[in-house]
Amino acid sequence: KVALPVGFNAALGHIGVLYRKHKPGVIEDAGGRIRVEYVVDPKSADFCTEAYASTVLDAAVNAWTTLLGFGWTEPKGPIRLFVRKTVSWASSTAKGATTGGFMGQPQITVRSDLGSSNLGSEAETRYVVSHEIGHLFQRQFTVNLTTSWLDEATSEWAAFVSDPKSYDTSGMTGEQDAVRLVLLGLPSSFGGVASKYIYGSAAWTLWLAWKHGDSTLAAAYKALDWRPTHWASVHKTLATATGKTISTLMRDFGEDF
Q1: CA gyration radius for the chain?
Q2: Contact 13, 165 (CB under 8 A)
Q3: Is 98 in a helix, a strand, or coil?
Q4: Fewer CB atoms near the end CB (10 Å): N or C, the chain?
Q5: Residue 100: which pLDDT band, with cuts at 50, 70 and 90?
Q6: What's the maximum distance between 2 C-alpha atoms anywhere in the chain?
Q7: Which residue has the higher pLDDT, 251 or 115?
Q8: Beta bridge partner(s), residue 35
């Protein structure tokens, strides 16, 4: 079985990433990869401390470094990462959001008040940031919005593999899609999973990485890169990435699950 990698931050004992401050409310890692922009006015609803912003930056660099080790294409930095009270016009409860990247590199936004979950403040922050960095790396291969459920499931894997201690497994229990995958089979299309089950599909991607290696998820996105014949078929995409038929993958997943 594939051993979990030692993350950048874990190797340093969580002492924090080195960064430079451009001006109040803007910090950037020393490698010029991620630029975190936050609000320093304590009267603003978007306010966060520099310590909070540095945790966001540290988690982002850690996830970035981890994914590079598994064959993902490196984004061209610096990537702008905003810390705000509300991250998406479409949802007042979303914890993080990453733009499509149709006109250049995507931008990321994470909430300025993470930490209300049972994970605790830093763990939840690191989990959300790592998940969004997963989306950033996906966009280097495709900006095809129809890959919704695979995008979310793969970003859950990115969060897990980047920072296992901060990963929230609560979304993979109960009436989640892991059970539905076993009973009903893997949807042939990328839109074949109801939104409430999308994140639970992480059980599938975590298993795929465990069974076939963590580089398998990057291979799946490489199979989507400029290949329209794969855009409508998750079966074809995953078969290309693993060299296995879907029936074999589903049988193995069901047995292990």
Answers
A1: 18
A2: no
A3: strand
A4: N
A5: confident
A6: 57
A7: 251
A8: 28, 80
Say if residues 210 and 164 touch (Cβ distance below 8 Å).
Answer: no
| Contact indicator for 217, 239 with CB cutoff of 8 Å | no
Listed in order, strand segments (DSSP E) in the chain are 19-23, 26-29, 34-37, 79-84, 96-98, 108-111
Q: What angle do CA 159, 79, 146 make, to 5 degrees?
A: 60
φ and ψ of 114, to 5 deg: -65, 150
Q: What angle, rounded to 10 degrees, do the helices at 177-184 and 246-256 form?
A: 120
Q: What SS3 string covers 182-211?
A: HHHCCCCCCCCCCHHHCHHHHHHHHHHHHH
Please enumerate in sequence order all residues whose Cβ is within 8 A of that of 58, keeping only pairs 6 or more positions apart, or say none: 9, 14, 16, 17, 126
Residue-level pLDDT at 11: 41
**Average pLDDT, stretch 5-12?**
40
**Residue 202 is which amino acid?**
A
For residue 83, the cross-strand partners are: 110
The dihedral built from the CA positions of residue 193, 195, 196 and 201, taken in this order, carries a sign that is positive
pLDDT above 50: residue 13: no
What gap in Å lies between CA 14 and CA 122, rounded to an integer? 11
Q: What is the pTM of this model?
A: 0.86
Give CA–CA dist 80/121, Å, rounded: 22
Q: In Å, how far are 179, 251, 255 from 185, measured between CA atoms?
A: 10, 9, 13
Per-residue confidence (pLDDT) for residue 119, from 0 to 100: 39
Two structure tokens written together for 55: 């945790």
Confidence band for 57, pLDDT divided at 50, 70 and 90:
very high
